[in-house]
Amino acid sequence: MDDSSRSRLLVFNRCKQVEDPDVDGVGWEPLRDFHHGSRISAMAWSPETNLTSMPRVLRLCFAENDKKVRLISSDMKDDDQVQVLGEHRDYINCVSFQPDQGALVASASDDLTCQVWGLDGQQAACFTLTAPGMAVCWHPQEPGKVMVAEKKGIIRFYHVQTQQPIMSLDCSHIPLLSADWCLGNSLRVAAVAGTDWFIFDTSRSSRPLENEQAHDTGCRAVKWCQSQDYLLATTGGRPPQLKVFNIKANQLTLNTELEASGGLSWHFRLPIVAIGGDCKVHLWHTGNVRYVRGLG
């Protein structure tokens, strides 16, 4: 949770099981309070983060308005470290960890580059884009590849080691503001551009197989559910809206409004979607469509 007004990064741990039907909501305990320099524009958790067994490790990367990518590491005792991994020439829109070992971090920026950094701060790759990079994703089944979405509606795949392009997808709509690579099906990619979401099957076509209007005044973000690959969350609209689509049943599962919105993510094992808004993190369980809790 980023408290930008006070330049703080707050990390919480869940202390009650949301799977328990007798528990009304979710309990949380603060784990760490990191103070940083400016507003965070993007953040990603490392797959090396481990809070359930010894030695405990908390690791995440984030981008700030000073155009730098930073890595936070903590042993949850007395050793908290913050290091600069790299820097862009313009605003950074997205950061993402390589999913298998977390040894690389990719960042996409308005400076028309996607850069890949090692945890030692050395640049491992740099891809020149033709429009601002709005999203960057890895996939555990394709660890040597990175997906980069450009604002002009093009989604490109690159081989990190050779730095060669592999393929591209085209929404034919602008502006593309977000894209995501489906964890449960590596052939599926989703994007939002203009008022619509788009779904691609990379084995069949470079053109979208499905698209549907999500927010009539424009979409902002899109995320696949990590536990159920037929659920797709989007944000956008005025006032800000959160919607969850069941693309298998062609149904709108969740449609709610917030006073403000920022960030979008899913629980790793459960169909719980989270979104920031009005100094809180709001959680919805889409399995039985209920509001879980506002954390903040």
TrEMBL record:
PROSITE patterns tied to this protein: WD_REPEATS_2 (PS50082), WD_REPEATS_REGION (PS50294)
SUPFAM superfamilies xrefs: WD40 repeat-like
Segments annotated as WD repeats: 85-120
Alphabetical keyword list: Cell cycle, Cell division, Centromere, Chromosome, Chromosome partition, Kinetochore, Mitosis, mRNA transport, Nuclear pore complex, Nucleus, Protein transport, Repeat, Translocation, Transport, WD repeat
Main location: nucleus
Superkingdom of source: Eukaryota
Cellular location(s): Chromosome, Centromere, Kinetochore; Nucleus, Nuclear pore complex
GO cellular component labels: kinetochore; nuclear pore outer ring
Entry-linked SMART domains: WD40
GO biological process: cell division; chromosome segregation; mRNA transport; protein transport
The protein's assembly and partners: Component of the Nup107-160 subcomplex of the nuclear pore complex (NPC). The Nup107-160 subcomplex includes NUP160, NUP133, NUP107, NUP98, NUP85, NUP43, NUP37, SEH1 and SEC13.
Function, in words: Component of the Nup107-160 subcomplex of the nuclear pore complex (NPC). The Nup107-160 subcomplex is required for the assembly of a functional NPC. The Nup107-160 subcomplex is also required for normal kinetochore microtubule attachment, mitotic progression and chromosome segregation.
Protein name per the record: Nucleoporin Nup37
Organism, as annotated: Capitella teleta
